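Input for the complex:
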Amino acid sequence: MSGDIFINIYPDRVEFVNPGQLPLGVTENNILHKSVKRNERMANLFFALHLMEREGSGYDKMYEVQLTNGKRVPRVVEGEDSVTAIVERRIVSYEAIKVMQTASQKFTLKQKHIICLGIIAQAGSISGSELIHQLELKDNVALRPWLRPLLDMGLVETNDGKTKNVEYRVVSQLLRDSDFKGRTTLKRIEPHRLRELILEDLKLFGPTSIKDLNIRIGKEIGIRSIQRILKNLIEDELVVKTGATTSLRYNLATK
DNA sequence: GTAAGGAATACAAACGAAGA
DNA sequence: TCTTCGTTTGTATTCCTTAC
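Predicted:
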């Protein structure tokens, strides 16, 4: 029958295959919080039978359930005459599940806040622009209602950075409460700590190129950030540089 | 002499903060 | 809510050194 939904069940995933194309204005990468009926007759029938919560809530619900269970968000693939929503079974973050459970015990969270927190918990640390991208939002103004309540509730914090440097992460207390064992990353390090780290490195290794310094400290830190801090350290007369270009080396200033 | 590689710099873009 | 300002980042380009 035209309009039937086919469900393919595989060991690692479940695929919901819906005949037809995505509605106008909706793309494979833009399907979250869209209230567009793909099949009006079926939608009306399911709604009348109380089998459907409300229009356009299906994908949002999939996001909520998947993220609550530490799994990836649904992947949408549009074929020539069908649209497939792929829901993976694999859990990608057991730690994120603990965080979500602990947060739910402490607060009553709305669906959008569960989705937002789930994305942050899985990422560990995520920039505002990346969050906007993953939530399929227009700009940071649209992000506010998703993020602000989480900040107000004390579930999410920032790294005190500015502009592109702002990273959102789950508050450390919540991570401790949920026995989080995720990886620590230097991506969130404050500039003054990075400055001390560079001084410590120079103390240990002596004259060094900026590239080697970057490798030892961690590639997750951009070389431009290290470059700027070295420039400040030279201005403060704490570091000196010798040579030029490829033979340029940085070292602690002798007093 | 030339190619490759490293570092510095210029510039555009992004984005939060502050003020109107 | 909008605009402006300041800060930071990523990318492209340029300059210089080194290796062959």
